[in-house]
Amino acid sequence: MAGTTVKRVTAADVARSLGLSRATVGFVLNDTPGQTIPEATRERVLAEAKRLGYRANSAAQALASGRSRIILLVLPDWPLEYSMRSHLDELSLALDEAGYSLVTMTPHPGGQARPLWETLRPDVVLGMTPFDARRLEEIRASGVQHVIPPTPAGAASSADELGFTEGPRLQVEHLLERGRARLAFASSPDPRIADLVAQRRRLTVETLRNRPHAALRAEDAVSVSNATAKVSEWLAAGVDGVVAYNDDIAALVLGAALRAGVRVPEDLAIVGHDDTPLAQLLVPSLSSVRIDSAGLGRYLADLALSAARASAPPTIGPETDAHLVVRETS
Amino acid sequence: MAGTTVKRVTAADVARSLGLSRATVGFVLNDTPGQTIPEATRERVLAEAKRLGYRANSAAQALASGRSRIILLVLPDWPLEYSMRSHLDELSLALDEAGYSLVTMTPHPGGQARPLWETLRPDVVLGMTPFDARRLEEIRASGVQHVIPPTPAGAASSADELGFTEGPRLQVEHLLERGRARLAFASSPDPRIADLVAQRRRLTVETLRNRPHAALRAEDAVSVSNATAKVSEWLAAGVDGVVAYNDDIAALVLGAALRAGVRVPEDLAIVGHDDTPLAQLLVPSLSSVRIDSAGLGRYLADLALSAARASAPPTIGPETDAHLVVRETS
DNA sequence: TATGGTTACTAGCGCGCGCAAGTGCGAAGG
DNA sequence: CCTTCGCACTTGCGCGCGCTAGTAACCATA
Fold it and tell me: What would the CATH number be for the domain defined by A161-291?
């Protein structure tokens, strides 16, 4: 077609056009330490590179330097919390400023004959949750030097580390304040998020431990097919408040309650978690826990960059602010 | 095995360990055409490669061959239709089987100093919607040979090409069947999806063109802040059926209607689009258009691969099956 | 026996770049 | 005056791989 720039401009082209050696050009372009380049030359090189439209060939850079400047973020295969998207933007931007590219991937149980950590040879592989031992081994075996989190699932959960532990406490305390005493924890049957569900359930149980007047049913997983049954079970057992694992589960409970003619929140109060857009779309609108993580993305970027550069990791985590958005279901 | 394998195994290692030359090893590993390799040698090489845990260095491959075997999918910066996720899986898998890796990115208006198409040098850049002229130029300028779709936004839309044009017709016809005659098209004010909104609006208008007994209001954008006002406007104008741009907009309309004491569907019927999980969570549950695209991912993969290999593009598009899921709002 | 063709390889270049190890030169120091 | 040093560069190797251009050995003919 028109305007075919088939041949890319290389550093050698820049050097030749300037009557300099390739090395000098390289030194300027990389700010190589230990080299003294007069300002005049430096500027000539930069100007010529720009004029010719020079772009470094990253494959060659990766081959020569051994570092790809790629950071691979492995996303969980369950739907992300709504707010995660903005954190990803923040992360991507912060890495970009440092000259690193963020690539995200979602592993699928069946597939991916050749996972991206082999293809891309990222400097760092970053997971939102700890990797299981087998996958950790797999990633390490493919030559990736830095994996975050570095320990397999089991030990401390990364959700703990990121301080996302306030939600269930807020949900419970709010319901207690509203005068509810017999609560149910509505969990998700999705096996992929079993860890997170278990964590929130545990936190719910712990929060209620010191409240002798309150009771909790904590073993119910709610799905489309059993929501109606669960709601009537609960009502029969005197449950008057539901702590939902997340907003989706809360919506399921709410829907079943409304269809059964149960008044919400009078007969049954419901509190969700994550404050997805869904929460304010429902009628009645859903009370939910919103977690704002100022600088979460930037924090993850610092974590990854410190690993990539073998420098000290950030000392403090991101600021997290969890609060309950009270709406009509409670 | 359980040690720090700092140094990766190269093809030269395999060759040395076998007493062969690097070239022979290369020929076997690449199935290089025009080379005669006895089966015995071929097997020795493959076995030794496996034994040593050889993995090709993709940076070196990219440098030497000039092809990165990476396909970059540029996602829109507005939320994806729910079903897109499974198509992505399908796409990724199909590409993987062909030895290509799929990398996805979402460009952000402000950011990304160095976009991924420069860093990764993908063989193909794939967009879900046409690129605007400026971005198309930008991608081409960075040396990417194949961009899909190859034409800038404006001409034929990719949604057209993919045959996703049935939805609005189904919405309208369903409402007419239900005896509704005065319809409103509820659009989204989000400027990022203006093209898609305009397309669905246009299809709605066209479908109603031949129905002299039906009327349409097509100029209303619904947001959280004006949903209530819009609903009363419509009712005052005698509107009895709403064609929503998507399920989110439909939910907004539904919520406003319920709060205003409007009976749905008796006073106002509502039909959404995309059949997101939201649709069946609402009370009353939302009628919506579901679009199943058998093999959409595989089709996109074929499209990308044919470009990468400079072979003929697939002749027929994916099978798309749009149908209306009738629920309680209509 | 010379000729041609096939088989089973190997030698080695080049992809574009980072960077270590020079090299020539003018100026400062003795 | 000679030596040393810092400056402003250049030469050139190596990263791992794809692939062209051989080459030596072994047939199969004429």
Answer: 3.40.50.2300
